[in-house]
Design brief:
This protein is α+β, with helices and mostly antiparallel strands. It is built from twelve helices and nine strands. The strands form three sheets. Strands 5-6-7-9-8 form a five-stranded antiparallel beta sheet, with helices on one face. The longest helix is centred in the last third of the chain and has 22 residues. It is globular and about 65 Å long.
Length: 306
């Protein structure tokens, strides 16, 4: 099996990106006097990363998810944050390479790390796993056509820790079918920004488009998660819609349960799932009536859409 590869220029750009370029600054802070009971919503606002504890502008501690859970299961009562916060933890500086942040997150196993000024320890923001890839793509801002024509001569496997960056998350919001294609278009653009081969991008975009239309037509929206490894692209499409009563029947070409309004818009021909399968090297459907459906699509570097 061939390996997914990223062009040399993209690799070089990733290594040049500094922490300050992709750190989050819209982070909710607390003080040592804040009560632990007040952190419930702060944790959610911070995408479940560590919560910075500040005295003035100086970082004096942080509360991790694990620390918060330990407090919840203890009998300590509603104590101030100062009694629970960690005071011995790793920080990042704004001029450090983003690859350093990736390595630290992998080593420590945390969802985020605080960023502080080198000398003053002034809090500047956080590097968060959940938004890291979005930040990297924004900084790269590569020209699609130019990058898609380059040789892909540096294998992802040879890049230490960069694989931790390669997860893309998309939300398909409940909208009219007329908006179908917005997310698949974003996916296509993002994959080209990473310098992935055109055939791989094409197959992924087609499968994503068909899945997006199904999410809008039958499930009221859902999520798309793409993960890149050294061997394949994995795309998982999940919804909490009505589910598929008969998966085997639904996979038959031409079979459709689309309502009239979907057919009137030119969709619902019964080829969506089949088209996704045709663009996949491995395709799995998991569906429970009344709970929802998960499509798992694996695409490697071999084969073509049929």
């Amino acid at each position: 099996m061939n390996q997914i590869r990223i062009s040399q220029s993209v690799i070089e750009r990733i290594y040049e990106i500094r922490v300050e370029k992709i750190m989050r600054t819209d982070v909710t802070r607390v003080t040592p006097e804040t009560k632990m009971s007040e952190l419930k919503y702060v944790i959610k606002e911070n995408n479940y990363a560590c919560i910075p504890v500040l005295t003035g502008e100086k970082l004096v501690g942080q509360i991790s998810i694990e620390g918060y859970v330990d407090w919840l299961t203890s009998e300590m009562g509603d104590v101030p944050v100062s009694e629970i916060m960690d005071i011995d933890f790793k920080t990042l500086h704004p001029d450090e390479p983003v690859i350093t942040a990736v390595k630290e997150l992998e080593l420590i196993g945390l969802r985020g790390l605080p960023v502080v000024e080198n000398e003053s320890n002034k809090f500047l923001g956080v590097i968060c796993r959940c938004t890291m890839m979005e930040g990297v793509l924004a900084v790269l801002d590569l020209d699609d056509e130019k990058e898609s024509k380059k040789e892909y001569n540096c294998i992802l496997n040879n890049i230490e820790s960069v694989s931790a960056l390669l997860t893309l998350n998309y939300i398909v919001e409940q909208k009219s079918l007329e908006y179908g294609g917005e997310i698949s278009s974003s996916i296509r653009t993002d994959l080209y920004k990473l310098g992935l081969p055109g055939n791989l991008v094409r197959k992924t975009a087609i499968a994503a488009y068909e899945a997006e239309i199904n999410l809008l037509a039958y499930a009221g929206g859902g999520t798309v998660t793409i993960t890149l490894s050294s061997e394949l692209l994995n795309m998982e499409i999940e919804d909490h819609g009505p589910g598929i009563p008969d998966v085997e029947k639904a996979m038959e070409p031409g079979y459709s349960t689309a309502p009239d309004w979907v057919r009137e818009l030119g969709f619902g021909a019964g080829m969506g799932l089949q088209n996704i399968k045709n663009c996949s090297d491995n395709f799995t459907i998991k569906s429970t009536v009344g709970e929802g459906t998960v499509l798992i699509v694996d695409i490697n570097m071999e084969g073509k859409c049929t």
